[in-house]
Amino acid sequence: MRALQALYKFARVLGWVVYGYWRVRTFSPKLSDTQQARAVEVWARGMLAIMGIEVRVKGHPSPGPVLMAANHISWLDILVMHAACHCRFVAKSEIRNWPLLGVLTTGGGSLYIERSSSRDAMRLVHHMADALRQGDVLAVFPEGGTGDGVTLLPFHANLLQAAISAQVPVQPVALQFVEAATHQRSLAPCYHAHDTLISSLWRTLCAPPLLAVVHYGSTQNTRDRHRRDCAQDVQTAVADLLK
Q: What average pLDDT does range 159-183 have in this prediction?
């Protein structure tokens, strides 16, 4: 029975992706930034609802300009943070070329980085700093990859340099997935190194109803700080929010 339910949800997920693709292609160029942000939030919430995931927010997202720094569990993290409060993500360049999803990610305002290129990383930091100076809300995953949702990987400091350069605060954000009925941590949404997008999606669809908890911490000042010290403090703050 659970497999049949998952298959039904999978069909609805595909339909919602196609709908989102059509919306981006048809209406996005005509929308203001505020309308675009609202449309992304609504679409993300709809997708998560189809998958049986409810978003629960703790704390308050800071208005821009701010750089949000979150732990990274799954490809679902972007949807979850969009559903809680629209922000522009820094994503790996490969996502831009994914069928359908690449268009959706670009439509959400993502900035792309070529992870193997130090020169591209410097270009992106300058681009991020400019966006922050203009009042944007950006979000990064400083771990650089997905963890198991239990233990944090070391936070890399490079992308936090944009907030330091623009002299805007960093807001720690803790993400967790728990079963809605028991509030016990769920590993179903975790995106492991051996996973494919389809296998991870299927495991999530087969799971019982989930809660995605987004816990916003207090913003941290970046003025006159070294990026490594900032990264360590943000990692400590995220770890505290996960307790």
A: 95
